[in-house]
């Protein structure tokens, strides 16, 4: 009942493959377990939302902060074509108010 070296190598290879397979199975089971826990939590949350005694919580809104007032003639440097802070266009060079009104 002597074992051949090739047979011994085949037994060791199959054992290594079995260990790797076992590790993959454990890893997959851990993932499935965590997914089931998350699913259970989501189902419990849905049951709570669908219950008759559920009342939604009022959402708290942030209050608006007032901006510091600016002088009326200030020019907005970030706006295209140099618009003023109040939104009106800056006077174009070479145009008078009389020609712009026509």
Summary of the model, kept short:
This protein has 102 residues and is mainly alpha-helical.
Could you explain the architecture of this structure?
With 102 residues, the protein is an all-alpha fold. The protein has a domain at 10-48. It has helices spanning 5-50, 97-101. The protein is elongated. It starts with a helix and ends with a helix. It contains 2 helices and no strands. 50% of the residues lie in helices and 0% in strands. The model has no long low-confidence stretch (mean pLDDT 79).
Rough outline: elongated
One letter per element, helices H and strands E, the order comes to HH
Largest sheet features: none
Q: What would the average pLDDT be, to the nearest integer? A: 79
What percentage of the residues does DSSP assign to strands (E)? Answer: under 5%
Low-pLDDT residue spans: none
Calculate Rg over CA atoms: 37 Å
Alpha-beta classification? mainly alpha
Helix content: 40-55%
How far is the first residue's CA from the last residue's CA?
Answer: 114 Å
Query: What is the number of beta strands?
Result: 0
- How many DSSP H or I helices? 2
């Amino acid at each position: 009942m002597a074992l051949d070296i090739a047979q011994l190598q085949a037994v060791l290879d199959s054992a290594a493959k079995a260990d790797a397979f076992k590790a993959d199975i454990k890893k997959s089971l851990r993932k499935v377990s965590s997914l089931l826990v998350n699913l259970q939590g989501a189902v419990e949350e849905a049951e709570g939302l669908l219950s008759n005694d559920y009342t939604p919580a009022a959402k708290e809104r942030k209050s608006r902060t007032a901006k510091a007032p600016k002088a009326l003639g200030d020019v907005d440097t970030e706006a295209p074509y140099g618009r003023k802070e109040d939104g009106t266009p800056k006077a174009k060079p070479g145009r008078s108010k009389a020609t712009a009104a026509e």
